[in-house]
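Work Package 3 (structural annotation) set out to generate three-dimensional models for the target panel prioritized at the project kickoff. During this period the team completed the workflow that converts sequence records into discrete structure tokens, so that structures can be stored uniformly alongside our sequence database. As a representative example, we reproduce one entry of 291 residues exactly as it appears in the project archive.
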Amino acid sequence: MPKICALAATFVFFAASSDFAAPSGKSLVLHTRNRVETAKGSGEWKVVEKTATWDANKTAVIICDMWNQHWCKGATERVAEMAPRMNEVVKAARRRGAFIIHCPSGVLDFYKDTPQRKLAQSALKATPKVPLQGWCKLDPTREAPLPIDDSDGGCDDEPKCPGGSPWKSQIATIEIADGDAITDSDEAYNLMQQRGIDNVIVMGVHVNMCVLGRPFSIRQMIYQGKNVLLMRDLTDAMYNSRAKPFVNHFRGNELVIEHIEKYWCPSITSADFLGGAPFRFKSDTAATASR
């Protein structure tokens, strides 16, 4: 089997950027989308679009598992492709006063001496609404099974890439600035409570796995009563198109986004921060409704 190609950039630039020094306290005008069942048990869903206005100073941006390398070559390439757009969104959010939390799971030793990591460690332990979980698994009391079969790990490459844990850090494309935090645990909740943060925007990978289940991510934050949004154009699934429901990778990604919009939280796109069209992977050529 082919070896995974490592990304050339493996170091993170800790930027004392001008974005962090820019004026804060601006409102975030966000165009949300969720899905509502037309009648309970009908299985028919309609799209509901609204405009929400959030206080940037009460908003956190969670960057989930945007590692420098994944065991799946295709997953690594898609992270690298979306990372420049994500970095621009993060800079815009930071400039407007949002709190940025980088959550690259399992690689915190890389950051152990940084002020961003120490900031997360220093947050006072908060009392949660319900017990915090190390992993929030699928919840049959409020959601249907996921619409894709990811039981094979979700690598869409052929032949399938060999497994492993090659990640060493967050991808260097995403700048880590003064005042940001770095964690991969429920420290994220402590940071939010310490700052009076009620609103959370989640981006990163993978939407059918860590974006839902990590201790800093969607299910956990919903359980804790946060207002949560998924940035749907800056995420990706671990889905193999040779598995059910036998659709292409990008349609599989969209199906999980639709699942989240039905059962967990609304979504937005990066256009709310940067204008223009939402991000789209260059290989995603199908004209579908989920973007």
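Residues 129 and 206 are 26 Å apart (CA to CA).
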